Amino acid sequence: MPEQAAAAGHRPAPVHTHPDDVPVLTALSALADPVRMDLIRTLADHSDWTLSCSNFDVSVGRAAKSHHFSVLRDAGLVEQRDQGTKRLNRLRREEFDARFPGLLDLVLRAD
In the CATH hierarchy, which fold is given to the domain comprising 20-109? Predict the structure, then answer.
């Protein structure tokens, strides 16, 4: 069955980790990468579910960008959903702030 989905152009839905299940070192590691911080800053400046992965202007290729989004999902920072051929994104700010109060504000202010 997965082969049929792939042949039909469908990809598996992304797996999301809830911030409550994320160790602080995982969150800090995800936020330590400059490309991932660019993704987070861009999401913080836009409404939920308005940006697809192709809307992000970062200095890495498609596969690397996909990896960075996976790291952000695993750290509980990003949620993604598929809409047609696009994968839309949202910053899980409220949930992440509840788990790590002030951390996201701190790193978004950092230069």
Answer: Arc Repressor Mutant, subunit A (1.10.10)
